[in-house]
Amino acid sequence: xxxxxxxxxxxxxxxxxxxxxxxxxxQVDIGEIRICKYAEEALQMxxxxxxxxxxxxxxxxxxxxxxLLKTVKERAPHLPVIVLTSHGDERIAVEMMKxxxxxxxxxxxxxxxxxxxxxxxxxxxLEMEKGREEAENELAEKEEFINKVALLSPNIIYVIDxxxxxxIFHNKQxxxxxxxxxxxxxxxxxxxxxxxxxxxxxxxxxxxYNHMRYHVKDAEVVEKEFRLKHKDxxxxxxxxxxxxxxxxxxxxxxxxxxxxxDITSRKIAxxxxxxxxxxxxxxxxxxxxxxxTMSHEIRxxxxxxxxxxxxxxxxxxxxxxxxxxxxxxxxxxxxxxxxNDILDFSKIEAGKFGLENFEFDLRExxxxxxxxxxxxxxxxxxxxxxxxGRDVPQIVMGDPYRLNQIxxxxxxxxxxxxxEGGFVKVTVHLDEDHGETVDLKIDVSDSGIGISEDKLSVIxxxxxxxxxxxxxxxxxxxxxxxxxTRKITQLMNGTISARSRLxxxxxxxxxxxxxxxxxxxGEEKTDTPLTLSLKGYRILxxxxxxxxxxxxxxxxxxxxxxxxxxxxxxxxxxSLETDDFDLILMDxxxxxxxxxxxxxxxxxxxxxxxxxxxxxxxxDTFAETTPEIAACNFSxxxxxxxxxxxxxxxxxxxxxVKVPHKHAVIG
Length: 667
Hints:
- 44% of the residues lie in helices and 22% in strands.
- With 667 residues, it is α/β, with parallel strands linked by helices.
- Its EC number is 2.7.13.3.
- Residues 5-122, 538-655 form the Response regulatory domain.
């Protein structure tokens, strides 16, 4: 940068001397400094000499600095002017800044450091202004070339003045797309643009170009979709790609250069896909709501059926009455299996099917499972065998519950589809050792009715069964068991496959990866409690179904608890106003006030009971993962229909933690 020449307009000799001295000490290469006392003298000097900067005192003889500033800006708009004021003249300084001054300084505050900063800022602004002017000149030189290219382009090309809302330039492609001849629409007026922009996109159109004007940088490409109006009244979708083309003197985007293509066909396809997605989401929501309702409506009466059946089975019935009760329990358990299949499938689809990961004794878990199936196999005289290879680790890390679910489905199917006198064989081998993890291969083989080769490719699909004829339909099932098994296997990063021939039996192979467990592992044994003593405890139970109330009363009386039964959440709150309780059993869905609302009120308005454990009783298996219910921070969940031992474990867990001094005894 060449030395900076300065014109100082100041009628006070002392002030002029002080300023000159400060300028000379600034860390900038200063050239000539000229001083004028009067405005007329300064204007005459500017006729023959152009300084790099002007320092202008506001208070001058005959005229004030504001008038001189306006005159200077008319002659040389880009010449930097710094105003000098007396102390307390900030209002005057603001007026000068509005008139075009670069900055202002109270005379008493001028020093070389401030002047150095001001000179650097001024230098940067001059460089920016110089660059802008050069860019404008370059654009003007290339305008003719661009026009020639644009007229031959197959895409729409245009330049819009977004200050005056006029179309400065366009090629002929837009008229072909809109069905007009190029002379039918006047696009150089506001009315012309309004005629071709769809009414629903007028606001979008204005908002978009307001953003372009104030916020978009040079060379920044902005894409936007608009609807135009075809001559026949139909919609034409275009996508534009635009950049700032020209800026005004204040640096705001004045003209925009853009290209556009017709995307009407694509938008129609997109809208069809969006509608299809909405229809699918609505169908999923309806299905989820239906399943949630179905879960509640079926599980609620089943809770009473299974609960009272268990009570009667333990009441000493013999003979035919015992057989009747066993038949009721068997039918209820089968119905629950079918319902759980449907709900598990829906949970997997909804992404709410979680996996655990902890150490467990693999042989012990599988051993318990095999003992469960031995009874069913013995009833059909099936040779049921289990073998676990010596190289299989004793302790593994993973989800034993989901492994159990996979094995129950596969072994259950094998026994179901194997005729009397056949065999079912379960083997577990080490497939591959990865160091910290192992792949275990589990085979479930049977001598059953088998699967035809044309069905092997579909047996893992939802609601699909390998046997659909009348001879095999009596085996029953939802057609979801194998589908759920495959989905669980995939969630565990495993694989499942099947080999079979019709009439020759089947072999299902599952490969699952588990972590290696610690050699010091010791699993806590928690045998199912036979009886529970809640003597000395007060329990508040909320349940609106009469049969379930009777069941709860019987169990709580059996466990020697003091208790109050409520029909809804409102009664719960009324009871809490007068009594203290050690534990609350809260049904989720109740009339008048549901359990969620009651829980929120307890936490917000009943501080005395805020830390009382609350166990949620629910027939909705989706409840625990529902955000609103999860936010209530229930102490635990017991899903209906529940067995007595499940409720015992839940109650004992929280009462032992809450009040160990009362000695809740499990024996």
